[in-house]
From TrEMBL:
The protein's name: Ammonium transporter
Localization terms from the record: Cell membrane; Membrane
GO biological process, one term: ammonium transmembrane transport
Gene3D superfamilies in the cross-refs: Ammonium transporter AmtB like domains
Source species taxonomy: Eukaryota, Viridiplantae, Streptophyta, Embryophyta, Tracheophyta
GO CC annotation terms, alphabetical: plasma membrane
Amino acid sequence: MAGTASIAYQNTSTSPDWLNKGDNAWQMTSATFVGLQSMPGLVILYGSIVKKKWAVNSAFMALYAFAAVWLCWVIWAYNMSFGDRLLPFWGKARPALVQSFLVARSELPATASVHYHDGSLEVHMLRPFYPAATMVYFQCMFASITIVILAGSLLGRMNIKAWMAFVPLWITFSYTVCAFSLWGGGFLFMWGVIDYSGGYVIHLSSGIAGITAAYWVGPRSAADKERFPPNNILLVLAGAGLLWLGWSGFNGGAPYSANIDSSMAVLNTHICASTSLLIWTLLDVFFFGKPSVIGAVQGMITSLVCITPGAGLVQCWAAVVMGILSGSIPWYTMMVLHKKWSFMQRIDDTLGVFHTHAVAGFLGGATTGLFAEPTLCSLFLSIPDSGGAVYGGDGGSQFGKQIAGAVFVIAWNVVITSIICILISIVLPLRMADEQLLIGDDAVHGEEAYAIWADGELSDITHYDESTHNGVAVGVTQNI
């Protein structure tokens, strides 16, 4: 047995010629950065930005989704997104549970060898210099954060059992379609629609699906809609900080190697984020008289979403322009237009995911069609003559392609998310019972976020003995 193992080792090096250890290390690091954005990033942010009685439920929705996507991904969803073509917008479902580690670079899976066809022209995307296992890991983190973002529209009222059913269905029938269409060699990629790191696949999808699901689930209780203060703003900032820094891997890992586009993506990400945060804060000061921490976080998120479709494909000056736009247009849709549009008023999007992700994602995709720099595009896509309208790219057709790609993503998510919600509602109620809506975490999970005496949602503070002047409620023991 020992001799056999020795021979096998001599014949199959653990570092084959095609393996780039630097690229592999960067890709796995980037994937971990993206994973940290969800767990603990959005788990902390969701658990802190909601009313105290929903802290546990909101954090758990994110935690469950992060775990559930893993099994869906490796059993069927990865190859539906990046495998062999079944339909022009969908790959064939099959497991990714058996990995071939020591293969020649020419034998890497279809995820690494997508072709672009332009008449008789065939152009190969650059294949990554690392095992398929790294790709499965990286792309799973993208799938996970998409459904976690979507959860932000549904906090504070969705039946947790309905959510548990929703996650695998949505990943299977919505996410995989958008991922294959734009990244895995589907018809939008073939046509030349650019989505560098998920502005459409992740953010536009989650924003549109989130507000669609919010329509079907219904609103929070009247009391929660009227007053829904964050329970811990400092922890909101901690979660937001993990999002911001984690975006270095989110956009930096998109080229599948540590190259020029990767460096540009990381730099542009932070330039755009800083610009947008400042613009949103200035607008808050100008119109409301004071800066808002929550507003600053929203401005940060909209910029990170906006820069994502073209992070490694635009020059730094364009990142500043995109930051100005992402700090002002979503601010207007959230703070002004939403309050005037009666249709939007009827839909309870808890964290405004439509504005921070759908609006910002669409804006980022459209501006990529304007500002994508041809040289950077050629490094990333290997498609001749691709580039934004400001560079004279094919008469501005790239901008039109970006709009058309967004329309497909929007339409697909509205239809599929609606079908999923309707089917689930036949078996399970989408919305919590009124009693659970009144009580919150203690009724749904039997747990509360903070064990603070006399401060729970069920604490009886009506029987107060003022004569004692010691803050002791009658009938309550002080076993703390």
